[in-house]
Design goal:
Blueprint lengths: L3 H27 L3 E8 L4 E5 L4 H24 L7 E6 L2 E7 L4 E7 L5 H18 L1
Antiparallel strand pairs: 1-2, 1-5, 3-4, 4-5
């Protein structure tokens, strides 16, 4: 039987996950070109996501994020550019953005266009800051 402490801890975790998902949903509602957002640990484990596809897509986004982070952090280190803040990958069909959201996680966004890049970055930066407080 679970102790009262374990039940409270489970409820707190569930509440934090709900908060994270709500933050992700609000950003997508405000910026329609954002097709999906995910909060991912730095080593590639999904925390929460709002993606237009399946759970396997969440795992793929998380794994690709870990690989991207490893390379980007190495580049920043080797070229003495300070600490990594964000990665922007532009493809012919849109963007993939990875943004720092605290010491343990990053915020990943996938867009269908780069037409509102300034607004996308601003909203993601705000969301990343809120996520850093929760995670």
């Amino acid at each position: 039987m679970a102790s009262e402490f374990e039940v409270e801890e489970d409820e707190e975790l569930e509440d934090r996950l709900t908060q994270i998902e709500n933050i992700l949903r609000r950003v997508i509602q405000r910026i329609p070109v954002i097709e999906g957002l995910a909060s991912v640990t730095r080593d590639g484990l999904p925390i929460a996501s709002v993606l237009n596809s399946s759970a396997s897509e969440e795992d793929r986004v998380s794994a690709m994020t870990a690989a991207t982070l490893a390379l980007a952090e190495r580049v920043v280190l080797e070229l003495d550019r300070g600490t990594l803040e964000q990665v922007i990958i532009k493809g012919s069909k849109g963007l993939c953005l990875v943004m720092d959201s605290g010491p343990h996680a990053v915020l990943v966004g996938v867009t269908s266009s780069d037409s509102q890049l300034g607004l996308i970055l601003l909203e993601m930066k705000r969301a990343a800051a809120r996520l850093a407080e929760i995670i």
